[in-house]
Specification:
By secondary structure, the chain is an alpha+beta fold. It has 6 helices and 18 strands. A hairpin with a 2-residue loop joins β16 and β17. The chain is elongated.
């Protein structure tokens, strides 16, 4: 795919989930940026051309984005009943069609309006996202070029530069922090394959080290601020043999004491939809961990893990 698709579109660092033999899955698990998704959609909008180069035939573009499957009786959300082509869903408004990834990765192509919308997100209600597109963006499309508006452009730039994920509110210190710092907790068998958790609390940050079947995974978190780093494996990642080959992932974490006996850790994998929250409640040598995923194939539910500490 590199010489035939990625390189011509200027997609520089694509990675793909692989099977145990190291082969790219192909059908799912592609990791690219939001801008790369937009490039792909723009190539489809241009009927298979990019910078004057033919990438796909126009006949294939038309065939792939035409509804071939009637899914009106198998889906409940309106935008999943308009028909399905070859890896593309038809949309119910604006003559649009879309590529559709897990938990809110969208590439929506509007041929009637000469527009492409690319989104990456981590949400459970995908229909709600599309409803907002039809409610706010689609009516704003027009046939004429908008006049320049420096004030609006400045306001938009300022707004985008200030966006951030929320951090928990609380205290950067606790009366029990010194007592639990350096303690390793053995965790009862659980669905996330977390075997042990160790804490190290410092003045300006904390490090929570998780151990699973893939080894140790330290997470460094700022108090009430995001601290960036990298991850060799995801804290809540199950040991799927077909989800490998990604290497280090960019991540950020923040933590805070939300009660004197409870520390909250928020983790964001910045090029993924996964942003879980973990709350650690300490009681003598016991620990209870509340795991709150932001997305799940089923309705996200909070899970309580338990363990016992040894210095």
């Amino acid at each position: 795919m590199r010489p035939r698709l990625f390189a011509p579109l200027g997609i520089e660092n694509p990675t793909w989930d692989t099977d145990p033999q190291g082969r790219s899955l192909g059908g799912s698990g592609l990791h690219i940026t939001t801008e790369d998704i937009a490039r792909f959609g723009q190539m489809y909008l241009q009927k298979g051309e990019w910078n004057g180069q033919r990438i796909l035939t126009e006949a294939w573009i038309d065939e792939a984005t035409t509804a071939h499957s009637d899914n009106s009786n198998t889906q409940t959300n309106p935008d999943w009943t308009a028909g399905y082509g070859y890896q593309f869903w038809r949309c119910r408004f604006g003559g649009a069609y879309r590529g559709d990834g897990a938990f809110g990765q969208f590439c929506i192509v509007f041929p009637e309006h000469d527009a492409v919308l690319a989104m990456t997100s981590g949400v459970q209600n995908l229909q709600l996202v599309l409803d907002r597109v039809w409610e706010h963006l689609l009516p704003a499309f027009g046939d004429t070029t908008l006049p320049e508006d420096p004030a609006a452009q400045k306001a938009l730039t300022s707004r985008l530069s200030s966006l951030t994920l929320p951090v928990a509110e609380g205290a950067s210190a606790s009366g029990i922090a010194a007592a639990v710092s350096g303690t390793t907790y053995e965790i009862e068998p659980n669905e996330f394959s977390i075997e042990r958790v160790r804490f190290s609390f410092d003045e300006d940050s904390t490090t929570v080290t998780f151990t699973n079947g893939l080894g140790e995974q330290p997470v460094s978190a700022g108090y009430g601020v995001w601290r960036e780093g990298t991850s060799e494996s995801r804290v809540l990642g199950r040991e799927y043999p077909w989800s490998s080959g990604l290497g280090k992932e960019r991540m950020a974490a923040c933590g805070i004491w939300i009660a004197d006996d409870t520390f909250e850790l928020r983790i964001c994998y910045t090029e993924s939809e996964v942003c879980p929250i973990l709350r650690f409640r300490f009681a003598a040598k016991q620990i209870a961990i509340e795991v709150e995923p932001n997305v799940s194939w089923e309705e996200p539910t909070r899970t309580i893990l338990t363990g016992r500490g040894e210095s």
